[in-house]
């Protein structure tokens, strides 16, 4: 299962997302000094599982954290739907459609 996670047009946001039947909270922010996006992933009760994930292109965001049983079985990726984006996402790249945040379940 591949699921696109919509990113709002805001420099800081927080949203609940359902991943493989479990509710998580994803919090994102754009760091203007570093010109890059970061995110935290937490449980719906507010407990943070992963903090300060840098949203980089074509890299599994949970890499190295798969030891934590609270994580969903799949992974989050930032991808370029057109294949044209070669750099990490800028401030408006998610809303402009240049990149997308997707969840890829284990069965894929």
Describe this structure in words.
4% of the residues lie in helices and 44% in strands. The model has no long low-confidence stretch (mean pLDDT 94). The radius of gyration is 13 Å and the shape is globular. The strands form 2 sheets. The protein has a 4-stranded antiparallel beta sheet with strand order 2-3-4-5, with no helix packed on it. It has 108 residues and is mostly beta strands. It has one domain (2-104). The chain has one helix spanning 93-96, and strands at 2-5, 12-19, 22-31, 36-43, 48-54, 75-79, 100-104.
Q: What is the helix content? A: under 10%
The dominant shape is globular
Compute the CA-based radius of gyration.
13 Å
By helix and strand content, what is the structural category?
A: mainly beta
First and last CA, distance: 6 Å
Unreliable sequence segments? none
Total discrete domains = 1
Helix segment count?
1
Number of strands: 7
Which sheet architecture does the biggest sheet show? 4 strands, antiparallel
Secondary-structure element series: EEEEEEHE
How confident is the prediction overall: mean pLDDT?
A: 94
Strand order, sheet with most strands: 2-3-4-5
Proportion of β residues? 35-45%
Organism: Spiribacter salinus
Protein name: Cyanophage baseplate Pam3 plug gp18 domain-containing protein
Domain Cyanophage baseplate Pam3 plug gp18: 7-104
InterPro entries: Pam3_gp18 (IPR054252)
């Amino acid at each position: 299962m591949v699921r696109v996670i919509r990113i709002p047009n805001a420099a800081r946001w927080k949203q609940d997302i359902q991943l493989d039947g479990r509710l998580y909270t994803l919090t994102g922010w754009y760091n203007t000094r570093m010109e890059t996006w970061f995110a935290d992933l937490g449980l719906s009760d507010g407990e943070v599982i992963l903090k300060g994930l840098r949203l980089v292109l074509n890299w599994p965001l949970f890499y190295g954290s798969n030891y934590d049983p609270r994580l969903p079985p799949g992974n989050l990726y930032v991808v370029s739907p057109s294949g044209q984006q070669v750099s990490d996402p800028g401030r408006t790249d998610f809303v402009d459609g240049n990149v997308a945040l997707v969840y890829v379940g284990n069965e894929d």
